[in-house]
Amino acid sequence: MSLITPDFGLLFWMTLIFLIVFFILLKFGFPAITGMVNERSERINASIAKAKEAEEKLATLAEQHKELIRQAELEQSRILKEASDAREAMIRKAREEAEASAAHIIEQAKARIAEEKDIAIREIRSEVTLLTVEVAEKVIRKRLEDRDEQQALISRYLDEADRLEKN
Amino acid sequence: MKRWLLIIFFALLPFTAGAEKLDMQEYLFGHVGDSYEWHITTINGHHVSIHLPVIVKSKATGWHCFSSERLAHGESYMGLHIAHGDEPHSGKIIEKVNGEWVRPLDISITKNVLSLMMSSVLLVVLILLTARWYKRHDAKEEAPKGFVGLMEMLITMVEDDIIKDCVGKDYKRYSPYLLTAFFFIFFNNLLGIIPFFPGGANVTGNIAVTFVLAMATFLAVNLFGNKHYWKEILWPDVPVFLKAFPLMPLIEIIGMFTKPFSLMIRLFANILAGHVMILGVVAVVFLTVELGAAMNAGLSAIAVVFGVFMDVLELLVAFLQAYVFTMLSAVFIGLSRQEAEHE
């Protein structure tokens, strides 16, 4: 059967043609194509990796940003609290000072009043003494108009003076 | 009404109106076999064919190169003629030396050779066009569109799915050969399906062609096989009595040849069978002429539907056989490059 016996002429041409085709494609065809395709796929893979990296970086940046905001908010509330504390302390201090000075003034006033009172009492006393003396003088004068009385009085004074001396 | 019945009656009669009887043998072998001329068509009994150059070295008269037109219709030229009838080497050029019919050294450009040349030129041009795109563009920045994109898809598919997976780590060395084999077979298969002139030759269904392809794989496997590969063949890891009396090495050495042999037969038989099937289906149209007009028309319609089915199937087979040949070649090469798993 001619179908299953390889014919020499066709074998010869097939070998020749296949070798020529193979060497042309080996030299100018497939390596150029597959090389470039591989390069591109490598580049695409690298790009994807880079994009992922950038995404991750972005995510950490956002995280940092959030953290910063959180810290700022904390700081803000701390400052506000401090300010209100300081205000309250100032008010309290001022009140205390005011109270203290008021107490002082009252104290002084009281001392003054007491002093004035003393002076006034002393003056009144001396006045009363003088008045008493005058009244007594007047009474005595009146009494001395009578002789007996004078005598009695003198003796009494003398008695008294004695007693005073004895004592 | 009567006239219609009469027409139907005549249509059902087995009636051959001057139709030639189809010589099935000549029809089949003429289409799947090789020939010195490329018969394109016949118009009004006039054959339109391309007469191809005959290149022979006669044992008696030396080299000859002439058009096959001189040998047409059984004519003889320089003592050479195409064997027919009872002569040996039917369909080939023979000469009479010492009273015996012998074949001269025959490297004529036959139908298959011309078809091979055309498909090879087409293949080289298309691949180089694709390669040119990559030279002119920065492939790192842009991807090809259209035809180059299609070629890139095919090449990448073959390389990624077959070559990388089957050959293993040094696939780059074998990738040009395997890609060439794939596209060579694929192009020739496709051209074989086209039923008229530039195609139609039964190239990959010819055993000489598949022999060369299988031989290329055989060489790729055995010329670059590593130490482990040869050790597996000559001194495999089996009990000593199996290799001292060289049973296993014998089997392995036979295996060396059966692998490419199976490649050769598989491609040849698949493509040849495809051609024969299609030719058979088409032949139904001509064979049923003698059964009468009605039967002929009905069976022809069925034959056309079957023909379409077979053609579509052959498209699949054209791709599949190229794929299978490449994949098995890659697997055999991969086995020859395997490193020992534990030593």
Name the features.
heterodimer, A: mainly alpha, rod-shaped, B: 3-stranded antiparallel beta sheet, 3-stranded antiparallel beta sheet, 10 helices, 8 strands
SSE map:
The complex is a heterodimer of chains A (167) and B (343).
Chain A (H helix, E strand, L loop, with lengths): L7 H137 L2 H20 L1
Chain B lengths: L1 H11 L11 H9 L4 E7 L2 E6 L1 E6 L3 E6 L12 E3 L10 E5 L2 E3 L2 E2 L4 H26 L9 H22 L3 H23 L13 H17 L3 H8 L5 H5 L2 H41 L5 H44 L7
Helix pairs in contact in B: 2-9, 3-4, 3-5, 4-5, 4-10, 5-10, 6-9, 6-10, 9-10
What does this structure look like?
The complex is a heterodimer of chains A (167) and B (343). Helices cover 94% and strands 0% of the residues of chain A. Chain A is mainly α. Chain A has one domain. The termini of chain A are far apart. Chain B is globular, with a radius of gyration of 26 Å. With 343 residues, chain B is mainly alpha-helical. In chain B, 60% of the residues lie in helices and 11% in strands. In chain B, the strands form three sheets. A three-stranded antiparallel beta sheet of chain B has the order 4-3-8, with no helix packed on it. In chain B, strands 5-6-7 form a three-stranded antiparallel beta sheet, with no helix packed on it. In chain B, strands 1-2 form a two-stranded antiparallel ribbon. Chain B has ten helices and eight strands. In chain B, a hairpin with a 2-residue loop joins strand 1 and strand 2 (46-51). The model of chain B has no long low-confidence stretch (mean pLDDT 86). The A-B interface holds A 2-15, 17-18, 20-22, 24-26, 28-34, 36-37, 39-40, 43 and B 29, 32-34, 55, 89-92, 105-110, 112-113, 116-117, 120, 123-124, 127-128, 130-131, 134-135, 139-140, 143, 151-152, 155-156, 159, 172, 175-177, 179-180, 184, 206-209, 211-213, 216, 272.
